[in-house]
Amino acid sequence: MITLRMQVDARTADEAGGLTGHEGDEFCHVLSGEPALHFAHSEPTRLRAGESALFSSHRPHAYVAPSPDGATLLAVLTPAGQAQPKPVSS
Asked: Which domain holds residue 20?
């Protein structure tokens, strides 16, 4: 599992480096700002501070901050093949 604090300042998906996909799953939680999560073949998903998203990282995506103030996110990436936690039995 990889945890990142991300500052998003790109105003367009092209400025963010385009849409990219990779192995695993991705969780993001917005700490500040109102970023848009862009996916291939769909409308951008706008998020506000306190909101989260979970998606397959295989799906090409980019984080964009339409506002000049940018956005700060907490992102957690889970590499493909990582063992899933087992429930604790009592």
From this structure: 2-78
